[in-house]
Write a structure and sequence with these properties.
Layout (H helix, E strand, L loop, with lengths): L23 E14 L2 E13 L4 E9 L2 H14 L1 E3 L2 E2 L2 E2 L3 E5 L2 E7 L6 E2 L2 H9 L5 E7 L3 H14 L3 H26 L1
Parallel strand pairs: 9-10
Antiparallel strand pairs: 1-2, 2-3, 3-4, 5-6, 7-8, 8-10
Helix pairs in contact: 2-3
Length: about 190
C-alpha cells in the first residue's frame, strides 16, 4: 500500500513577475543612482513604469530598489495602485488639453481616425497603454522622461467626459434659474 501524500502546489517560476490582471507593463526609464557613503558608493536603481489595459485605464509608478528587477516590480505595483480612467471618444481623446508638470509641458490634441499616435517615446508609452489610437501630441520645454510621463498622466486624468460635463453644467444652470425665480417671488 502506498500512502498518497498531498502534493504541494509548485510555485510558478516567474511567480514574482506580478499579478496576471490583463494589464500591460512598459518600462519607460531606468536610472542608476549613486550615493556616496563612508565606505564608497552605494548604487541603487529607479524605474519609471507605465501600466495600462488599452481600454481606458492607465497608471504610472516610480519604483526604487537596489536591483533593477526589484525596481521594475515596485514601479508596476505603484502604477497599479495609481490608475485613472480616461474618457475616450472612439479612438481618440474627448478634447484638447495642455498641462505643465515641473519643467515639462505636454499638449494633447484629438486626431481624425487613421492618424495614429504622433508622440515621442515617453508620451507614447502612456497614450498607447491608455488605449488611444489617434492623437497628436507635443512635448515642450523639459525632455526629462519622468516629468513627461507624469505630465501626460496628469493631462489624461484631467480629461472630462462631454456627456457628464454637459449634465453637470445643466444642473448648475437649472439651480441658478430656480434661485432667480425664488428671488423674484420674494420681491413681489
Amino acid at each position: 500500500m502506498t500512502s498518497e501524500k498531498p502534493r504541494r502546489e509548485r510555485r510558478n517560476r516567474d511567480g514574482d513577475r506580478g499579478p496576471d490582471d490583463g494589464m500591460e507593463e512598459r518600462v519607460v526609464k531606468i536610472s542608476r543612482v549613486a550615493k556616496v557613503v563612508k565606505g564608497g558608493r552605494h548604487l541603487s536603481f529607479s524605474a519609471m513604469v507605465v501600466v495600462g489595459d488599452s481600454q481606458g485605464k492607465v497608471g504610472v509608478g516610480l519604483g526604487k530598489a537596489d536591483a533593477v528587477p526589484d525596481a521594475v516590480k515596485k514601479g508596476g505595483y505603484y502604477a497599479r495602485r495609481n490608475m485613472v480612467n480616461v474618457p475616450l471618444s472612439k479612438t481618440t481623446i474627448t478634447h484638447e488639453i495642455k498641462v505643465k508638470y515641473c519643467g515639462a509641458e505636454v499638449m494633447l490634441r484629438p486626431a481624425a481616425p487613421g492618424t495614429g499616435v504622433i508622440a515621442g517615446g515617453s508620451v507614447r508609452a502612456v497614450v498607447e497603454l491608455a488605449g488611444i489610437k489617434d492623437i497628436l501630441t507635443k512635448a515642450t520645454h523639459s525632455t526629462n522622461p519622468i516629468n513627461l510621463v507624469k505630465a501626460t498622466f496628469k493631462a489624461l486624468s484631467m480629461l472630462k467626459d462631454p456627456e457628464i460635463e454637459k449634465a453637470r453644467r445643466q444642473a448648475v444652470i437649472d439651480a441658478g434659474v430656480e434661485m432667480a425665480n425664488s428671488e423674484q417671488s420674494v420681491k413681489v
